[in-house]
């Protein structure tokens, strides 16, 4: 059972004040792009242990450093498999193989994507095909137990996330947008970036306001206006990511110099996202960024694309 699952970029990430539970209230506009991890689930394990086993590798041709991905019970895909087994009363001995093209700790929700893929794969493996007990909404609910970004990786497309980002409403979009992503050496820790955002706000004496959906962004999406979308991209975590990784400033500038119509750090970073007018412009932009030597790798993708899908 193989499932393909997309990365995300945040078109708008508005971060409200920190809550009592340590999370921040968000308006998080997710957009799924055509950079995919693949998770394969097969019944049984080689070691004969009591739970899931996992192996992780870079997808063919992908320059992803998989060293930081846990291959034990901390792997989000393993935790996802255990949740599905528990819900369906299934034998949790399953072998998961993850092929990663999504950068690790890159702000593109690769771990969440793998969790979503494992939820979909294990549900298909263990659920009753004639009378399934789990629907997509159930899997999204189970995903929220694993992380704020997991429900979106199940859903895909473009969606507005509120709460900690897990409560989703699909957004109306028209056409296809063309993106170029500049990945970085080494990741950034999501909790550390949120903490840096709080620290900067406190130091500047600028408390967080209530996050609100950008009307400019929604109109740009609904009309398929790439230039307006580029102008509306906004990420409250960007100053924090730049503070923790000052070299990203040069990456963003290089993208602008090569004609990107929008440039933003993706989520908690350090991947930078650049919007192009069309496929041809994206190819030129990618070549320019590659030559500038400001990224570990430069990848093109389009969005929106569907969420976790059985291959
Ligand atoms: C920043 C975003 C933007 O989409 O993603 P990444 O860029 O890391 O992929 C998300 O908010 C990350 O979501 P996810 O990676 O699922 O985080 P979780 O496991 O739920 O939380 C990890 C930690 O991030 C912080 N966190 C997360 C979500 C949120 N609304 N407020 C927070 O403060 C908390 O410190 C939390 O302990
Ligand atoms: N299947 C997985 N793939 C990647 N990272 C994972 C996975 N499971 C757990 N992790 C952990 O989650 C952390 C964040 O990873 P990731 O989701 O790739 O980044 P981000 O939150 O920046 O989008 C990693 O550093 C790793 O320790």
From TrEMBL:
**Which domain of life does the protein's organism represent?**
Bacteria
Enzyme Commission identifier(s): 2.7.1.148
Cite the SUPFAM superfamilies for this sequence: GHMP Kinase, C-terminal domain, Ribosomal protein S5 domain 2-like
Ranges for domain GHMP kinase N-terminal: 75-157
Residue ranges of the TM segments: none
Q: Where is the GHMP kinase C-terminal domain?
A: 218-289
Does the record's keyword annotation contain Cell division? no
Q: Does the record carry Kinase as a key word?
A: yes
One Pfam family hit = GHMP_kinases_N
Q: Name one GO molecular function term.
A: 4-(cytidine 5'-diphospho)-2-C-methyl-D-erythritol kinase activity
Q: Which InterPro entries match?
A: GHMP_kinase_C_dom, GHMP_kinase_C_sf, GHMP_kinase_N_dom, IspE, Ribosomal_Su5_D2-typ_SF, Ribsml_uS5_D2-typ_fold_subgr
Kindly state which keywords UniProt assigns to this record, in alphabetical order. ATP-binding, Isoprene biosynthesis, Kinase, Nucleotide-binding, Transferase
Tell me the active site.
8, 149
UniProt catalytic activity: 4-CDP-2-C-methyl-D-erythritol + ATP = 4-CDP-2-C-methyl-D-erythritol 2-phosphate + ADP + H(+)
The coiled-coil regions, if any, are none
Which positions are annotated as binding ATP?
103-113
The pathway noted for it is: Isoprenoid biosynthesis; isopentenyl diphosphate biosynthesis via DXP pathway; isopentenyl diphosphate from 1-deoxy-D-xylulose 5-phosphate: step 3/6
What family does this chain come from, according to its entry?
Answer: Belongs to the GHMP kinase family. IspE subfamily.
Name the job this protein performs: Catalyzes the phosphorylation of the position 2 hydroxy group of 4-diphosphocytidyl-2C-methyl-D-erythritol.
What's this protein's name? Answer: 4-diphosphocytidyl-2-C-methyl-D-erythritol kinase
Q: List the taxonomic lineage.
A: Bacteria, Bacillati, Actinomycetota, Actinomycetes, Streptosporangiales
